[in-house]
């Protein structure tokens, strides 16, 4: 579908939605209202919860200390302190969540944006500064043109609505069209994103002295997020908390 036809189709969807019965945005079975996911799809997701790394949110198989004791760190965070204050993800990146995220990314299944943003805000709220500003991990303009939208930006917009916090889509830029990260090792991913981001001239005053909630879709090795956080801190941001929808959890 070319982008014009796609845009018209999207515009028309609001009208169509009010006529057609609501369907689960993941599998298509009938549900109570538009934007819902059916119970089967909900229960298929693996939500990440405690016990987990206090800093990066990596889930532990079992608690090595008494449950609830604060300050447990994963091996990676003990070895190198991450640049962010906290990172959290809503669910694990597995077959069930992958299907949802790809649908959101490539097939305009935008019904997921609002419920996901709500979950993301609930997850990061305890770590977000009261006057934080929400910023999405940006796409390079070439990729943005191909995809037509940045799903992290859509999630940011909805999170800003739920939280009442400011958002800023324009200040953090991806200035290098990095190759796809898929299939790259941790080291190569880090190299791939080096000097890929910058703060726009117009955004410098806007971000200086602020706390940021950085929004990403999938947290893999953390290379992209770490680089964004590094640039934000260099630009005078005081602290960054990171929220992603899904996290790749591998040993
Ligand atoms: Zn379903
Ligand atoms: Zn950690």
Keywords:
binds zinc ion, 15% strand, globular, Rossmann fold, two-stranded antiparallel ribbon, alpha/beta, 251 residues, five-stranded parallel sheet
Describe this protein's structure.
The chain is of the alpha/beta class and 251 residues long. The chain has 2 domains: 1-43, no CATH class; 45-247, 3-Layer(aba) Sandwich (Rossmann fold), CATH 3.40.50. It contains 10 helices and 7 strands. β6 (211-219), α10 (223-234) and β7 (239-247) form a beta-alpha-beta unit. α5 crosses α7. The model is unreliable at 7-12 (pLDDT under 50). The site of one zinc ion has 8 residues, from α2. One zinc ion (ZN) is lined by residues 24, 26-27, 29, 37-38, 40-41.
CATH-defined fold name of the largest domain? Rossmann fold
Q: Could you describe the largest sheet, including whether it forms a barrel?
A: 5 strands, parallel
CATH top level of the largest domain is Alpha Beta
Q: Could you give the order of strands across the largest sheet? A: 1-7-6-2-3
| General shape | globular
The count of β-strands is 7
Radius of gyration: 18 Å
Percent strand: 5-15%
Mean pLDDT over all positions: 86
CATH architecture of the largest domain: 3-Layer(aba) Sandwich
Order of helices and strands: HHHEHHEHHEEHEHEHE
The first-to-last residue Cα distance is: 40 Å
Structural class: alpha/beta
Helix content: 25-40%
Bound molecules: zinc ion
Q: What is the count of DSSP helices, taking H or I runs of 4+ residues?
A: 10
Uncertain regions: pLDDT < 50 for 5+ in a row?
7-12
Number of domains: 2
